[in-house]
Design goal:
single chain; alpha+beta; Aminopeptidase; Nonspecific Lipid-transfer Protein, Chain A; seven-stranded mixed β-sheet; 12 helices; about 25% helix; about 30% strand; Acetyltransferase_Eis; Acyl_CoA_acyltransferase; GNAT family N-acetyltransferase
Length: about 425
């Protein structure tokens, strides 16, 4: 008998959470506080479990929630965010994820979501469900002594200032700055109340105790908050009592380069700090070029981050803007049938619709997801055999049309 896959009830949520934590190799201990926190924020209709027919226990998990994604040009699209995907090691390779994913994507399309998003813990899994890696992330470690910054002046002389604030002030200031950044940055996703409460320590999970942070706000000369950083520092001393501390940045949001420069200068000017780890940044982030010696920043991580799966190709391609004008007929292949079809994109007019014209390019929905936010390369995908060019020059035009001047960025893991 196959496993029963369905939404969980409140009484089953502890078992569901235990399975999530076991699947992610974290502590299987689940407290009443953890369950209460999940009940407060999770939509149980979108919190799914697979239950073993013999034991009745939860053996696989899947959760989605409503999300908004900013696309090139600033439009915001409704997304189906996929999270908490796990299968117990005793029940792998039985098709449980495929059953849960297939049902969920069909429900998301029926609900009117334009696309689905996720952060892939393992690269090989999600392409077969139509997801493509749409943004990348880089983390640098800055050797403070090598930067060439004048550490006597923790803020550039632009009339602005840095204020250290408490968690409550950070909770008030952060969402507004994030909203301004999200309005102009493709790839940024919405943050709900739960995200901000957990990030600032106003709420905490028993299974993941909160570690206190510092919060810094950059204010312009007229007092307007234009940037925000949250960070922690270790406490590392040599036997000779020499401090060798490292700052780990959790979040840094800036609405203009001036605020960004001031915040990085401040973080690299803190006494006793030898290293600054930047946290997740866009691959073309300004931070290294803001340093007099960019080589003082060493790459620690360079990886894919946000994956996108289109559900409504017409709405998705109409919503974003394009770098250059041009017309492309795209033959989109989708084994699940959710986005399959032939589409005429007129990048100059910003229109898209189904068509019977001969295709210029043939590509899978996962490849279209990789291109969608402007980070993927049609030329590279063609070289790999994942995009087929049927009209000479169509691959080059697709690269020119889809690529963006600045690379998309998703600062969050969900």
């Amino acid at each position: 008998m196959s496993a029963d896959i369905r939404s969980v009830t409140e009484s089953e949520l502890a078992d569901w959470l235990r399975t999530v934590q076991t699947g992610f190799l974290s502590s299987p201990l689940v407290t009443d506080g953890d369950v209460a926190q999940r009940i407060k924020y999770n939509d149980l209709n979108r919190t799914v479990g697979a239950f073993d027919p013999d034991t009745g226990g939860c053996v696989a998990t899947f959760r989605t929630f409503a999300q908004e994604l900013t696309v090139p040009g600033g439009a915001v699209l409704p997304a189906n965010a996929v999270s908490a995907v796990s299968v117990l090691p005793t029940h792998r390779r039985r098709g449980l994820l495929t059953r849960m994913m297939t049902a969920d994507l069909a429900a998301a399309k029926e609900r009117g979501d334009v696309l689905a998003t996720l952060i892939a813990a393992e690269y090989p899994i999600y392409g077969r469900y139509g997801f493509g890696p749409a943004t990348s992330t880089v983390e640098w470690e800055i050797d403070v002594a090598r930067t060439g910054l004048d550490r006597r002046l923790p803020v550039p002389d632009d009339g602005g200032r840095i204020d250290l604030v408490d968690a409550a002030e950070a909770r008030r200031t952060g969402p507004g700055l994030h909203g301004r950044l999200r309005a102009v940055t493709p790839g940024v996703v919405s943050r709900d109340e739960r995200w901000w409460n957990l990030d600032t320590g106003l709420e905490a999970l028993d299974s993941r105790p909160y570690k206190e942070k510092y919060f810094a706000v950059y204010r312009s000369a007229d007092g307007e908050a234009q940037g925000y950083a949250s960070y922690r520092s270790d406490e590392h001393w040599t036997d000779a009592k020499v401090p060798l501390n490292t700052v780990q940045v959790s979040d840094l949001l800036a609405v203009n380069p001036r605020a960004e420069r001031a915040l990085w200068h401040f973080l690299c000017s803190i006494d006793w700090v030898l290293k600054v780890r930047t946290g997740h940044r866009a691959p073309d982030d300004l931070v290294t070029q803001l340093l007099p010696d960019p080589r003082s920043a060493r790459t620690l991580v360079s990886a894919d981050l946000l994956w996108v799966r289109l559900l409504d190709v017409v709405r998705a391609l109409r919503a974003r803007t394009y770098e250059v004008p041009g017309q492309l007929v795209l033959e989109v292949e989708d084994p699940q049938g959710l986005a399959a079809g032939r589409y005429l994109l007129d990048a100059g007019a910003g229109t898209c619709g189904t068509t019977g014209a001969e295709p210029d390019l043939v590509l899978g929905v996962a490849e279209l997801g990789a291109l969608y936010l402007g980070d993927g390369s049609a030329a590279r995908l063609a070289a790999l055999g994942r995009v087929r060019e049927l009209r000479p020059g169509a691959v080059a035009l697709a690269d020119a049309v889809f690529r963006t001047a600045r690379r998309p960025w998703c600062p969050d893991i969900f």
